[in-house]
Amino acid sequence: MNEEVIWEGKPSQLVNLSSYLFWLLPLMWMGLGLIISLYKYLKVSTHKIKITNQRIIEEYGILSKTTEELELFRVKDITLHQSFWYRLLGISVIRLVTSDKSSPTHSLTGIVDGKKLREQLRNVVEKRRKDKGVVERDFD
């Protein structure tokens, strides 16, 4: 099966809005606010997310890079969360509950048009689980 890209992007810089307002404006004269805001900007701008029909690949890091992969057939549940401020800004957090041992929960933060991506993810996860023959059984 060929791997096709479903979605590719970065978290929105709007996740840093409160930090920018708190650090950059009042403390700019000290230099501290500028340094903290620059760090937060770089942290978000170097975070890359690629979702294919088989896995989620995240690459992040300013100087050193870390790449994490999550196989889609391991996803058990998808939740879309939008706080009051995130709703006003049009961004959301997609939380994934997985059967992965290293990361049982996984969050995609600062996603623009999260409802659409959540629906795409749900469809791709179902197809991937069906293709791999993965069946979930709960024991009490």
Describe this structure in words.
- The longest helix is centred in the C-terminal third of the chain and has 19 residues, at 114-132.
- The chain starts with a strand and ends in an 8-residue tail after the last helix.
- It has 140 residues and is α+β, with helices and mostly antiparallel strands.
- Helices cover 36% and strands 32% of the residues.
- The protein has a single domain (5-132), classed as PH-domain like (Roll), CATH 2.30.29.
- The strands form two sheets. It has a four-stranded antiparallel sheet with strand order 1-2-3-4. The chain has a three-stranded antiparallel sheet with strand order 5-6-7.
- Helix 1 runs antiparallel to helix 2 (32-45).
- The protein is elongated, with a radius of gyration of 17 Å.
In DSSP terms, counting alpha (H) and pi (I) runs of 4 or more, how many helices?
Answer: 4
Low-confidence stretches: none
The number of distinct structural domains comes to: 1
State which percent range the strand residues make up. 25-35%
Number of strands: 7
Mean pLDDT across all amino acids: 91
CATH level 3 topology: PH-domain like
- Helix and strand composition category: alpha+beta
Q: Can you list the strand order of the major beta sheet?
A: 1-2-3-4
CATH architecture classification name = Roll
What is the 3D form? elongated
Tell me, what is the CATH class?
A: Mainly Beta
Oligomer designation: single chain
Give the helix proportion (percent range): 25-40%
The N- to C-terminal Cα distance equals 36 Å
Radius of gyration: 17 Å
What order do the SSEs take from the amino end to the carboxyl end, as H and E? EHHEEEEHEEH
Largest sheet: 4 strands, antiparallel
